[in-house]
Amino acid sequence: MNYLPEKTIVNQKIPKEAFYKNLKLSSKLKKSLIDDIESIVVTHSLSNNSLEFTKATIIEEILLVTIVLKRNDFNISLIETILKSNPHKILLKLKFNNRLQYVFYENKLYKSEWKESFNLYYDCDINSLDQLWLNLIIQVLGFEEILDRNKDVFAVLEDYNKIKKLEVSIDALERKIYKEVQPKKKFRLYQELQLLKQSLEECING
After folding, report:
1. What is the pLDDT of residue 147?
2. Consecutive sets of 10 residues in the chain, 206 residues long: mean pLDDT of each?
3. Nearest-10 Cα torsion for 55, 59, 60, 64
4. 8 Å CB contact between 38 and 96
5. Which candidate, 165, 29, 28, places its Cα nearest to that of 84?
6. Which of 8, 29, 164, 175 meets the CB 3.0–4.6 Å disulfide criterion with 50?
7. 3-state SS string for the chain
């Protein structure tokens, strides 16, 4: 991650055995912890002290954690359990071979695309942990030009979920139109498609 102050660096390796003690894992998840994960490292601790923020916020600390995976077909339920069970805000970076993915949890699991290079930036104009968390997750979601940074996290994620749901519906309907052979039904589906696209445009443009 670029531009974070040096005093935020932790680079503390967490033994996998610690998760046995602190998390209630099923036997299946314990096996996944052993089979799927190579290492777990807390790379940065972002707090008011380490960032010299003075504004009191709901979020007290953000941890940046890197997990190196042994395999591509890892158990995503294990990752979700780790994030859900931790009281801190965690931005998790998964690494496998030369690719990486960012993951976070806000009432459900959110993931970036897998990429060979994915550098998050730290905006020096940010002056609170709440703003920083919002800035980070918007970058992870890849909707920096669309999502409103003036909203809170829950409103931003609500907008994101609406957009993604509409995109999935549009994609499914386009494929359905392509396969449809009856002209009247095809036209009716096309009208539905235009309404969905209009709704998507309204969500994107506010």
Report:
1. 67
2. 78 84 82 92 93 88 95 92 89 94 95 88 85 91 76 88 94 93 92 94 81
3. -120
4. no
5. 29
6. 8
7. CECCCHHHEEEEECCCHHHHHHCCCCHHHHHHHHHHEEEEEEEEEEEHHHHCCCCCCCCCEEEEEEEEECCCCCCHHHHHHHHHCCCCEEEEEEEECCEEEEEEECCCEEECCCECCCCCECCCCCCCHHHHHHHHHHHHHCCCCCCCCCCCHHHHHHHHHHHHHHHHHHHHHHHHHHHCCCHHHHHHHHHHHHHHHHHHHHHHHC
Pairing label, strands 109-111, 61-69 = unpaired
Interatomic CA distance for residues 197 and 137, integer angstroms: 25
Q: How many CA atoms lie within 13 A of 17 on its CB side?
A: 1
- The structure tokens listed for 137 are 């997750």
pLDDT at 18: 79
Are 42 and 14 in contact by the 8 Å Cβ rule? The answer is yes
Q: What's the pLDDT score for residue 104?
A: 97
Q: Is 138 exposed, middle or buried (0-12, 13-18, 19+ CB in 10 A)?
A: buried
